[in-house]
Amino acid sequence: xxxxxxxxxxxxxxxxxxEVHDELGHVLYTDSSPETGGVNGxxxxxxxxxxxxxxxSSIDVVLILQKQKYEVKDIQVAVKGIRADSIxxxxxxxxxxxxxxxEIPAEKVKRAIDLSMEKYCSVAAMLNKVAxxxxxxxxxxxxxxx
Length: 146
Fold this sequence. Notes:
By secondary structure, the protein is an alpha+beta fold. The chain folds into 2 domains: 1-43; 45-144, K homology (KH) domain (GMP Synthetase, Chain A, domain 3). 30% of the residues lie in helices and 32% in strands. It contains 3 helices and 7 strands; from the N terminus they run βββαββααββ. The strands form 2 sheets. Strands 4-5-6-7 form a 4-stranded mixed sheet, covered by helices on one side. Helix 1 (45-67) packs across helix 2 (106-120). It is globular and about 50 Å long. The chain starts with 6 loop residues before the first strand and ends with a strand. The model has no long low-confidence stretch (mean pLDDT 95).
């Protein structure tokens, strides 16, 4: 299948510490909190979801702006996730704060983020089914009104 993805997870020394390999040879480590028996030996699985939405949307934003002949000199995204008190403790609210640097009109950055969040970012599309996703952005260190 063209859209198939496969990973391999292996248990490390601690019972809840895992090494994850993808098809391209990349490796990351996951673990649980010490309160549940983990040793803080890697990302928590839910944290990876936040990293996924930040990465996915950043890729979209940079590519959209590049297609419009704008150079993103730097992009950073701070993500805050709020989880439900019940089990499963899914994210109920996710807020992304984009920080973009470059000679780019603010309306182009906003449109690129909107397109990512509403159309292109597969991670956001999945998380949107359980969480409210919001964002804000700064351009060249100036907050842009939504």
